[in-house]
Amino acid sequence: MERTILSVSWWHALSSSWKQAFAETCFRHNGEPNLLELEQVYSAPALRFAGPGAPYPNMSLELEDLSGLKALNNLEILVFTHHRLKNVAGIEHLFGLKSLFLNNNQINNLQGIEGLTVLRQLYVQHNYISSIHPIAGLVHLEELYIHDNLLDSLEGITDEHAEKLDKLICKPNEGLKQKELIRVEREFGIRCRSL
Q1: From start to end of the chain, where are the E strands?
Q2: pTM of the model
Q3: 173, 195 in Cβ contact below 8 A?
């Protein structure tokens, strides 16, 4: 009963664009969702929001924020691609996230991601990110896709990443020089790959 009350209050607090997003991606209708539908979304372990520019879109609109996800603490996999997202505010409390796909947005920084310490996969390619410092504590990363951003440094990758980070796709990044790639490969033993 308590979870039902939480899911109803979460739904009523959503913006109209987020209600439309859930209507299109989860409910498949534009009417008011019933309690079972709300409960299923509220407790879902995986959600996908692919904007209209995605290869296989499931939405007709582009969202600009992650505010609709703040209370969805059961999420382990989040796909949020081809939107107009500029930052990752709104997911800092989703501590159970293991896979996060935020590629093809307009993200300029990763502040707020630091607490997502169980992340295994992070896809943030095709954005405007100039620093990956916030990933320094995400030492369980196995896959990191950061190509096609504004990076000129891989500061944020540490020796603690070396054990698990098997797939680091960081090229192309126009400002990322060969000596920085060599530094990461020599210092941490992590191969810097190209797409």
Answers
A1: 46-50, 77-81, 99-101, 121-123, 143-145, 167-171, 192-194
A2: 0.95
A3: no
Identify the CA nearest to 149 among candidates 116, 102, 79, 94.
Answer: 102
Residue type for 188, please? Answer: F
pLDDT tens across the length of the chain (195 residues): 566 667 788 899 999 999 999 999 999 888 899 999 999 998 999 999 999 999 999 999 999 999 999 889 999 999 999 999 999 999 999 999 999 999 999 999 999 999 999 999 999 999 999 999 999 999 999 999 999 999 999 999 999 999 999 999 999 999 999 999 999 999 999 999 998
Residue 172 identity: P
CA–CA dist 10, 20 (Å, integer): 14
CA distances 53 to 73, 79, 149, 164, Å, are 28, 14, 18, 33
Q: Answer yes or no: are the C-beta atoms of 112 and 133 closer than 8 Å.
A: no
C-beta separation of 108 from 127 below 8 A: yes
Q: Is 134 in contact with 112 (CB distance < 8 Å)?
A: yes
